[in-house]
Specification:
There is one protein chain. The protein has helices at residues 10-18, 31-38, 49-59, 91-100, 120-130, 154-160, 170-181, 193-224, 228-235, 258-265, 271-295, 321-330, 357-363; strands at residues 2-4, 24-27, 62-65, 73-76, 109-112, 141-144, 163-167, 188-192, 302-306, 336-340, 366-369, 388-390. The chain is α/β, with parallel strands linked by helices. The protein has two domains: 2-186, NAD(P)-binding Rossmann-like Domain (Rossmann fold, 3-Layer(aba) Sandwich); 227-390, Rossmann fold (3-Layer(aba) Sandwich). The strands form two sheets. The protein has an eight-stranded mixed sheet with strand order 3-2-1-4-5-6-7-8, with helices on both faces. A four-stranded parallel sheet has the order 10-9-11-12, with helices on both faces. Strand 7 (163-167), helix 7 (170-181) and strand 8 form a beta-alpha-beta unit. Helix 1 crosses helix 3 and helix 11 packs parallel to helix 12 (321-330). It is globular, with a radius of gyration of 23 Å.
Length: 400
């Protein structure tokens, strides 16, 4: 089989399949990624993935190639970002579909795992596949099976999570379901392509709306001079209330992006989804305002940011609000910035050196806790009495 895209979803998926009896060719455009994988190493941080890739490459069941090769099954696992105006950017999906056309053979299965707006499989991918001369739904089976994995637990969730598969036709759905049932232990739910596309978007939009409520509550508490963590902790004592944790914003390749795909499909019918996006997108600026207020008290203060990734204990910087905050601070000539990010080898911000936690605590005037990495969780307020602290993730507060 052939997996197009060897990123945070494609590589773990390829590695899992390569260890359950499949011979897998993984495709990527970057030569450095191909060389790294073919050497039995990995280019991302994911628990246990290094051992799996090393074993699969050594066994000859996984190889990385620059172009798709003929296969019985193709998985498209490429990025689907948004443009600056929040429109879906499907160029990677389109390019992947075009790239696999020469490798198609009658009877093969093409599965789009990338998260996409409703109608993408039928309106974008299917016509490209049809350009091969093979008819989707008759000669080639075409389906959408959105990835539903959590970074940091991908290897387990690829196998254990329930899956939604939606084909271009009933025959496509059946063929796709049979593929996932051959290795996945979670229930495989069958539907149409459009329902599968929207279901994945709905999952992440639901999360985004609920996070926006928590972030808006944090904004209210800041205005009223109240402790949002205490408010949430007490509100959550109600048996039918479970408010999420606020933070510096929302990041990652899913929750910060997918709601815009729904909004793009039905802009007049999504005021709540769009409002939630705006609340969450404005949170980094709220954090910056807090930091600048403290910095104004000092002459060229030293500021240390703890964490740059979009969530704890991973190396993923995609859409990270922490990185947005740090970059804005690095551009401020009135302060001096350093960053602590234990999951990176070098700083992604040229103006802000990567330092250790001990050095940051010793040198900084202002500490900004942006990600609740495990390495930071031993910190307590009494450890930081000599610092001014901004803590939008509530690391130093009792958990609700």
């Amino acid at each position: 089989m052939c997996v197009l895209g060897l990123g945070y979803v494609g590589l773990p998926t390829a590695a899992v399949l390569a260890t359950v009896g499949r011979r897998v060719a993984g495709v990527d455009l970057r030569r450095d990624i191909l060389d790294t994988i073919n050497a039995g190493r990995i280019h991302i941080v994911e628990p246990e993935l290094d051992a799996l890739v090393r074993a699969a490459v050594a066994a000859g069941t996984l190889r990385a190639v620059a172009d798709p090769v003929p296969a019985a099954t193709f998985l498209i696992c490429v990025p689907t970002p948004i443009t600056p105006d929040h429109s879906p950017d499907l160029r990677h999906v389109e390019a992947a579909a075009h790239a696999l056309v020469p490798a198609l053979r009658p009877g093969c299965l093409v599965v789009l795992e990338s998260t996409v707006p409703p109608g993408t499989l039928r309106e974008l991918v299917a016509p490209i596949i049809a350009s091969s001369g093979l008819v989707p739904g008759r000669d080639v089976f075409l389906a959408h099976a959105p990835e539903r994995v959590l970074p940091g637990a991908v290897l387990r969730e690829v196998v254990e999570n329930e899956r939604i598969v939606g084909g271009l036709t009933d025959a496509c759905t059946l063929r796709c379901a049979e593929f996932y049932e051959s290795f996945a232990r979670g229930t495989v739910h069958r539907s149409s392509a459009e329902v599968a596309e929207l279901s994945k978007l709905a999952e992440n939009a639901f999360r985004d709306v609920n996070i926006a409520f928590a972030n808006e509550l944090a904004n209210v508490c800041a205005r009223l001079g109240l402790d949002v963590w205490e408010v949430i902790r007490l509100a959550n004592r109600h048996p039918r209330v479970q408010i999420l944790r606020p933070g510096p914003g929302v990041g990652g390749h899913c929750i910060a992006v997918d709601p815009w795909f729904i909004a793009a499909a039905a802009p007049q019918d999504t005021p709540l989804i769009q409002a939630a996006r705006q609340v969450n997108d404005q949170r980094p600026e709220r954090v910056l305002t807090q930091v600048r207020h403290l910095a104004a008290r000092l002459r060229r203060p030293k500021v240390a940011c703890l964490g740059l990734t979009y969530k704890p204990d991973i190396d993923d910087l995609r859409e990270s609000p922490a990185l947005h905050v740090a970059r804005a601070l690095a551009a401020d000539p009135e302060l001096e910035l350093s960053v602590v990010e234990p999951h990176l080898q070098r700083s992604p911000i040229p103006e802000a050196p990567l330092v250790g936690l001990t050095q940051a605590l010793a040198d900084a005037d202002i500490l900004v806790i942006l990600v609740a990495h495990r390495q930071f969780r031993h910190l307590r307020p009494d450890h930081l009495l000599h610092l001014m602290v901004v803590d939008p993730v509530g690391l130093l507060s009792a958990r609700p």
